Amino acid sequence: MKFPSEPFKIKVVEPIRRTTREERDRLLRHAGYNLFQVPAESVYVDLLTDSGTSAMSDNQWAGMMLGDESYAGSKNYFHFEEVVRSICGYQHVIPTHQGRMAENLLFSTVLKPGMCVPNNIHFDTTRANVEHQRAEALDVVIKEAYDPHCEMPFKGNMDLIQLADAIDRIGRDRIPLVMITITNNSGGGQPVSMANIRETRALVNRYGIPLFFDACRFAENCFFIKEREPGYAEKSVVEIAHELFSYGDGCTMSAKKDGLVNIGGFLSLNDDQWTQDITNLLILVEGFPTYGGLAGRDLEAMARGLLEVLDEDYLSFRVGQVRYLGELLDQAGVPILKPIGGHAVYLNAKEFLPHIQQAQFPAQSLAVALYREYGIRGVEIGTVMFGKKDVGTGRTIHPELEMVRLAIPRRVYTNMQITYVAESIIELYRRRQGIHGLALTYEAPVLRHFTARFEELRAIPILQQAAS
Ligand code: F0G
Are the C-beta atoms of residues 130 and 106 closer than 8 Å to each other? Predict the structure, then answer.
């Protein structure tokens, strides 16, 4: 396996407070076994998300000092606009404080009740923002995306037959745009191929429907194209990004991922009328169009981050570090989703803990055990997050996949810390029989995973049991 050597050195460090198993056990009880309720300073390796958790470079921090905090016409806005245009090539650039605001502005403007937005798989906030307009968020990813064992290079691809059928069935007038999420986060951080994007473009052209990207992890997607798609090995990631965006009419972006910043996002598009309507709304809810809910210094950090993320040395380390973790686990027989995605490794909890039925939350139980034993925080992506109540019977309908996502923050953890994560999980896998299920004791009516509370079904400490 290739050891991903770091293309940077450390200039500033943030100490991590070590905790004991007893302390973590107490924190878990207090948190109702919900890791969103555990204070971050009590986590050793925090893999809850790769969003907003990046380490900025010295160049970005230097840019922060050059923040022009003028209300209108800040010089940082013009730099940011120039950078976004140079990458995406769209006419208009609208800054927002994060990705979901870009989605909210777009969908509030273009959607009416009863309309539909097809996407490979909508991310939660995209889906919620579409549904907030009383429109349908339709997933049209290829069926292999739902098979954790299927190894395909571009498992994030759109199913073009399903998409064409959907457009014919729903009607062009009820589909104001089609979206493609790069990489496909909800499907395991899987990339979309250039060929599939090109074909999607050709298809929507036949109907005159605009194509937008949910571009949070565009650079990682472009790097996969370079690595895996015939004809792209000799192209630079920048050239690949230019071609990719050229097939679209616009994009929404959470710069908290591939913008390498802790806060920020944008919307970029060609349509003048949509831009005018969105800008009017932006002024109402976010801020003036040259800052859009951010400080000038944030815009500068974002402009610099967007250029840095296209550095191929960085991308090869980034994707390599995620792959390194996945391969260590895979080689030890730990069940993970394949192939390994761009920003995260997903543990397959159904196979990790076959003795825990889905009604007893195996992925949540696994995430709890990982934190209690080793101080590592991942996130449950399974029944807690996506389980639905059947209105008739009141019974829970379980999602197909039961996962723990280990999302790797960008440029934050050393390879030794990543090795620690792998060794911990491998050890936990050997002791998996000692992990017990959970029972739900409280749930909110919507987005229950953030505040749900649980009880352990059998509170036997895993390591003690393994030792006895
Ligand atoms: N689209 C995708 C594909 C995302 O992964 C996210 C955020 C968003 C949109 C929304 O962006 O958070 O800036 O408003 N994903 C984070 C995650 C939260 O953990 O995967 P945001």
Answer: no
Instruction: Please answer whether residues 38 and 371 qualify as being in contact, where contact means their C-beta atoms are separated by less than 8 angstroms.
Output: yes
Least-confidence region, from 77-81, 322-326, 449-453: 449-453
pTM (2 d.p.): 0.95
- What is the atom index within ligand 1 of the atom nearest the CA of 343? 20
CA of residue 194 to ligand 1 center, whole Å: 22
Output phi, psi for 350, to 5 deg.
-60, -35
Determine the Cα–Cα distance for residues 404 and 398; give it in Å rounded to an integer.
15
d(CA 326, CA 408): 11
Task: Check whether 465 has a pLDDT greater than 50.
Answer: no
Residue nearest to atom 5 of ligand 1 (CA): 185
State the distance from the centre of ligand 1 to the C-alpha of 258, rounded, in angstroms: 11
Q: In the sheet where 211-214 sits, what is the strand order?
A: 92-96, 265-269, 250-254, 211-214, 178-181
Query: How many angstroms separate the alpha carbon of residue 254 from the centre of ligand 1?
Result: 6
Residue 367 host element (H or E): helix 362-374
Taking the domains of the chain in order of start, what are their residue ranges?
21-50+311-467, 58-308
Would you say the C-alpha torsion 452, 458, 460, 466 has a positive or negative sign?
negative
Q: Within 10 Å of residue 453's Cβ, how many Cβ atoms?
A: 16
Residues contacting residue 361 through CB under 8 Å, at least 6 positions apart = 380, 382, 383, 384, 437, 438, 440, 454
CB atoms within 10 A of CB 273: 8
Q: Does domain 58-308 have CATH number 3.30.565.10?
A: no
Choose among 74, 75, 124: nearest CA to 99.
Answer: 124
Write the pLDDT tens digit of every residue in 155-199: 999 999 999 999 999 999 999 999 999 999 999 999 999 999 999
**Could you tell me which CATH number the domain at 21-50+311-467 has?**
3.90.1150.10
The upper half-sphere exposure of residue 177, i.e. CA atoms within 13 Å in the direction of its Cβ, equals 23
